[in-house]
Amino acid sequence: MPRLVALDELDLSAYIRPGDGVVFGQGTAEPLSLTAKLAEQRRSYPGAQVFVPITFSATFDPKHADCLRFRGTGGIGSMRKMAGSGALDPIPCHISAVERLIADGLIASDVVMLLVSPPNERGEYSLGLVNDYVRAAVSRARVVIAEISDQVPWVYCDQPLREEEITIAVRTDVAPAELPTAAFSDRERRIAAHLQPFIPDRATLQVGIGAVPEAILASLADRSGLGLHSGMLGDSVVDLIERGVITNAHKGIDPGVSITGALFGTRNKLYRFAHRNPAVRLCSTRYTHDLRTLSGVKNLVSFNSALEVDLTGQVNAEAIGANHIGAVGGQVDFVRAAVLSGGVSIIALPAAGKKNESRIVSALSGPVTTARSDVDLIATEYGVARLKGLGLRERVRAMVAIAAPEHRDSLMREARQTWSDL
Question: Phi and psi for 366 in degrees, rounded to 5?
Answer without folding.
Answer: -140, -165
